[in-house]
Write a structure and sequence with these properties.
By secondary structure, this protein is an alpha/beta fold. The chain has 3 helices and 5 strands, in the order βββαβαβα. The chain has a 3-stranded parallel beta sheet with strand order 1-4-5, with helices on one face. A two-stranded antiparallel sheet has the order 2-3.
């Protein structure tokens, strides 16, 4: 039975300091696990759970994640990545404000 929850908000805004030195050159979300970026495994699980829209919350300096998806997948389409629509939101100083905007 699939869940009624259709949106997932995934924070990819942290620096990954606990995984240093591996994250010196690449975001932790893009670190390869079984020859695929970690974030791809997360998306696979979300889609299998019935998620149709995934919103990544990023911050300044984390453009590599958005660049990765824009370069490799059609993020603008309705089902841009294996059955999920992907969007990005920049983290604001007010957590309540951006969560309210994302979850409309």
């Amino acid at each position: 039975m699939k869940s009624e929850i259709k949106k997932a908000v995934i924070s990819v805004a942290s620096l990954g300091t606990r995984v240093l030195p591996a994250t010196k050159a690449i975001s932790k979300e893009l670190l390869p696990i079984y020859n695929r970026p970690l974030i791809h495994h997360v998306i696979d699980e979300a889609v299998q759970a019935g998620i149709e829209e995934i919103i990544f919350v990023t911050r300044s300096g984390k453009e590599a994640i958005q660049d990765h998806f824009e370069a490799n997948f059609d993020c603008g389409s309705k089902k841009g990545f294996i059955g999920a629509n992907i969007a990005f939101a920049k983290k604001d100083s007010s957590m309540a404000r951006y969560m309210k905007e994302i979850l409309k």
